[in-house]
Each structure stands twice: as structure tokens, then as C-alpha cells.
């Protein structure tokens, strides 16, 4: 149902020719317009938010595009001059520690959602679909830490990765399949509550990501 809701939502945006910066209707109005439940709509919006395609602010509503710099003071300094290699290096330092913490704090629902996300990742048909589920996977791990600072930082990292010059491509199916297997290995370790192994599997994954990114600066 989540994929159907996402398809309907993207169709709604396309039919109305909505652009980055445009506001979406309230959840209630949008769910009624799409003929879906608010729960399914929230899941679809969460996927788009993780992929940097919408942003939500408390008391502000939901908007298309990435979060504007004026609403994310830390984003400008992190994004300025960052190459794909810079971002990959930062992720390699941070994310294994995030997943180790998440392993100790994740709820059963968190783990079930991560497992589901990893499966969807494995079924991605192209780079755009891969990126959607990949960004959601890494954000879900941050959310499982229950640490607002880590969650905010991961949202910023996902936003940085959406820049055309900073986006790492997973264009071939073999690469996508390999990365999906690594995501699944991370989740398996988390389900066993083995934080050290989960961190090691995440480190292996991010080393693979880093290896595939040219070292040149922008």
C-alpha cells in the first residue's frame, strides 16, 4: 500500500505542476484527495522527506524540495564546498557509531521498519528508487537512536547527498544488489542486538561507497 500511496502522491504533485518550495495541503485534506489513510500518507511523506524531496516544519506544514537554508542554519556550513568524497568520509566516521547506538535503543517496531526498508531497497529497479529507500534506511537508523541531534544531522547529510554534484550513483544493478545485501547484514546484526557487528557491517558498507566515489573535489 505504501508504494501505491507514494505513486498517487507523486502523481498529485505532477498533475498540479507543483514545484520545489510549494506547500502541500494538510495531511487530512491530502489523504482525502488521494483516497488513502493518513497513516499510509505519513509513510509516503517520510520516504520523500528521507530522500530530500519534501521537508516538514513544526507549525509550518509540508513543502516540496529540500529544507531551505534559512530553516537549517547548520546546513549551509556543512554543504559549502563538500564533495562526494568529503561526504563519504564524514559518513564513514559517524554512521558506524550511530548504528551501534541504535542497536541498543531500537524498538521492535524500529527493527521491523528497518528490515522492511532493506527489503524494498533490494527490490529497487533504478537509481532513483534506490536513492529513495537508501536515504530512508540511513535516516531510520538515526531515528532509532532516539537522539534529536543525531536525527537532525542525518537529515542534513541526506540533504547534502541530494546535490547533483554530491550524489553518489548506484546505476548498475550489481552495485545496488551488493549494497542491499550489506544493508540487510546491518539489520540482521541489529536484530541480534549485536552493536559491534552492526557497526562493523556499516563500516564495510560505507567503505564500499567511498571506494566507488572519485576523490576529486568540486
Percent in helix: 55-70%
Low-confidence stretches: none
By CATH, the superfamily of the largest domain comes out as: GntR ligand-binding domain-like
What kind of sheet is the major sheet?
Answer: 2 strands, antiparallel
Tell me the strand order in the biggest sheet.
Answer: 1-2
- Broad CATH class of the largest domain: Mainly Alpha
Taken as a percent bin, the fraction of beta residues is under 5%
Domain HTH gntR-type: 1-67
Pfam family, one: FCD
GO molecular function: DNA binding; DNA-binding transcription factor activity
Organism: Caballeronia insecticola
What is the element layout, followed by pairings?
Elements: H1 2-15, H2 27-34, H3 38-50, E1 54-57, E2 61-64, H4 73-79, H5 84-105, H6 108-122, H7 127-144, H8 148-161, H9 173-191, H10 195-211
Antiparallel strand pairs: 1-2
InterPro entries: GntR_C, TF_FadR/GntR_C, Tscrpt_reg_HTH_GntR, WH-like_DNA-bd_sf, WH_DNA-bd_sf
Protein name: GntR domain protein
Keywords: DNA-binding, Transcription, Transcription regulation
A few lines on this structure:
Keywords: DNA-binding, Transcription, Transcription regulation. The chain contains 10 helices and 2 strands; from the N terminus they run H-H-H-E-E-H-H-H-H-H-H-H.
Amino acid at each position: 500500500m505504501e508504494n501505491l500511496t507514494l505513486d498517487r502522491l507523486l502523481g498529485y504533485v505532477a498533475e498540479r505542476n507543483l514545484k520545489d518550495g510549494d506547500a502541500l495541503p494538510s495531511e487530512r485534506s491530502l489523504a482525502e484527495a488521494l483516497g488513502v489513510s493518513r497513516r499510509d500518507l505519513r509513510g509516503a511523506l517520510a520516504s520523500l522527506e528521507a530522500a530530500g524531496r519534501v521537508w516538514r516544519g513544526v507549525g509550518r506544514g509540508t513543502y516540496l524540495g529540500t529544507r531551505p537554508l534559512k530553516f537549517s542554519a547548520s546546513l549551509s556550513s556543512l554543504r559549502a564546498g563538500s564533495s562526494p568524497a568529503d561526504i563519504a568520509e564524514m559518513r564513514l566516521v559517524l554512521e558506524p557509531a550511530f548504528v551501534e547506538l541504535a542497536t541498543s535503543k531500537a524498538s521492535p517496531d524500529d527493527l521491523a521498519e528497518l528490515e522492511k526498508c532493506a527489503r524494498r531497497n533490494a527490490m529497487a529497479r533504478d537509481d532513483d528508487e534506490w536513492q529513495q529507500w537508501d536515504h530512508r534506511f540511513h535516516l531510520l537508523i538515526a531515528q532509532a537512536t532516539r537522539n534529536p541531534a543525531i536525527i537532525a544531522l542525518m537529515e542534513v547529510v541526506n540533504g547534502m547527498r541530494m546535490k547533483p554534484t554530491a550524489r553518489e550513483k548506484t546505476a548498475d544493478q550489481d552495485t545496488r544488489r551488493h549494497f542491499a545485501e550489506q544493508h540487510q547484514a546491518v539489520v540482521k546484526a541489529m536484530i541480534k542486538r549485536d552493536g559491534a557487528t552492526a557497526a562493523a557491517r556499516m563500516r564495510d558498507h560505507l567503505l564500499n561507497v567511498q571506494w566507488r566515489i572519485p576523490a576529486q573535489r568540486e
